[in-house]
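ARCHIVE CARD
CATEGORY: sequence design from structure
SOURCE FIELD: tokenized fold
FIELD CONTENT:
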């Protein structure tokens, strides 16, 4: 059986023979080589800061609703505005990284984002809070696409899935620690102090990131001309495999955004009625995502890209169904499976984008990140609306439909791969 994939290109198999690009003459970084550990830790910290800031209000939505007197669907905009700002600006920021360098753009993005993060605790109204969060999300747009492009240029191809998995693992640690810390701090001192603490942690991560990240050795400056940028974007959007990967990222994030935006409301209400600190600690299940993301390379090596996506989707769907129970242990198990499935699927899809794009990798990654965070904004908003209309079952329904979308797209990609395989011998014969 041939390696599985989501489309016409073959997947990366850990058992493949070493290519010339992975030989000793390749000056790019590899595990155990000079600079690789520093680079991995620096981007891990960038991932921590990005997710900690981006979702700093998510675990605090019940408290924000209470202070400003707004419903869950309105408070959820403090999350949706940040992810929406990122989705809107990720492509322009990726273009800047093509011209001025990945490290420069990532550093500037973190500097602006952490500065805004220190202003968020002083927001006088829900409207001002949403605006600040939108600006913060726009600033963070320089991180995801630039980071994956940096890795694609500076890391050997056989180590790329693992390297991106470590960056995604940093995302999961940031998301987990941000929510756990804010939960306990908010229980004692309120949500404003809680987001201020996250801002201070992000400052420390940003400084360490800049000191640790090795200078790029393989970056070649591109053009900022709109015609060149639009041509690159058009090339990527005309690639059927890339389109499928973008849709898969968006759908996975729709599930994740909806579940974690609403779960705080569910757990603070009957029959659970948990205090804010305990609700924040629920996000320790993000550690499962750290593991699943960092092992995505081995998963692809064993199952192929398509098999890994099926497993991720099935795991996520199982978790959604388990979370319907009015039993706290089953709800927690459901969250564990949702988190593991999501982070594995995200790591597989995002690394596939970097390997599929033959040029304009920052734009290819930016389009993925844009779709991904559009999915987050949609999940946060639609998931909250579904919860308001039909309770937790409504949110789960939205998630299950998104997973079905992932499976359908993957099946269509498999069919396209088989059709392409049949046509290739015919073309050769003629």
């Amino acid at each position: 059986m041939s390696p599985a994939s989501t489309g016409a290109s073959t997947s990366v198999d850990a058992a493949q023979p070493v290519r010339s690009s992975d030989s000793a003459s390749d000056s790019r970084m590899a595990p155990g080589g000079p600079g690789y550990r520093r680079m991995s830790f620096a981007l891990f910290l960038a991932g921590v800061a990005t997710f900690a800031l981006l979702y700093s209000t998510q675990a605090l939505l019940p408290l924000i609703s209470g202070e400003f007197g707004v419903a869950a669907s309105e408070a959820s905009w403090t999350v949706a505005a940040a992810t929406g700002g990122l989705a809107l600006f990720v492509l322009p920021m990726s273009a800047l990284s093509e011209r001025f360098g990945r490290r420069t753009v990532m550093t500037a993005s973190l500097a602006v984002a952490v500065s805004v993060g220190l202003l968020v605790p002083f927001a006088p109204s829900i409207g001002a809070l949403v605006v600040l969060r939108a600006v913060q999300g726009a600033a963070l747009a320089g991180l995801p696409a630039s980071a994956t492009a940096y890795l694609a240029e500076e890391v050997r191809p056989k180590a790329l899935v693992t390297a991106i998995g470590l960056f995604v693992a940093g995302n999961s640690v940031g998301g987990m620690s941000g929510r756990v810390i804010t939960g306990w701090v908010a229980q004692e001192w309120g949500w404003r102090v809680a987001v201020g603490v996250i801002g201070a942690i992000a400052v420390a991560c940003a400084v360490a990131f800049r000191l640790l990240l090795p200078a790029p050795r393989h970056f070649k400056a591109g053009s900022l001309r709109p015609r060149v940028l639009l041509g690159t974007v058009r090339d990527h959007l005309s690639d059927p495999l890339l389109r499928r990967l973008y849709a898969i990222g968006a759908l996975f994030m729709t599930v994740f955004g909806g579940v974690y935006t609403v779960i705080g409301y569910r757990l603070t209400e009957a029959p659970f009625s948990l205090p804010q600190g305990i609700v924040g600690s629920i996000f320790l299940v993000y550690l499962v995502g750290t593991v699943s993301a960092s092992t995505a390379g081995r998963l692809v090596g064993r199952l192929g890209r398509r098999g890994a996506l099926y497993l991720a989707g099935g795991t996520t769907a199982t978790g959604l169904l388990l979370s319907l129970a009015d039993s706290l242990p089953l709800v927690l198990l459901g969250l564990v499976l949702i988190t593991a499935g999501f982070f594995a699927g995200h790591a597989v899809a995002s690394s596939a984008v970097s390997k599929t794009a033959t040029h304009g990798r920052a734009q290819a990654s930016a389009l993925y990140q844009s779709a991904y965070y559009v999915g987050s904004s949609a999940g946060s908003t639609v998931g909250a609306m579904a919860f308001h209309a039909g309770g937790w079952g409504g949110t789960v329904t939205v998630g299950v439909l998104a997973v079905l979308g992932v499976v359908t797209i993957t099946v269509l990609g498999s069919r396209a791969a088989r059709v392409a395989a049949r046509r290739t011998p015919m073309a050769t014969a003629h």
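CARD ANNOTATION: Residues 65 and 74 are 8 Å apart (CA to CA). The radius of gyration is 21 Å.
SHELF: design records, drawer C
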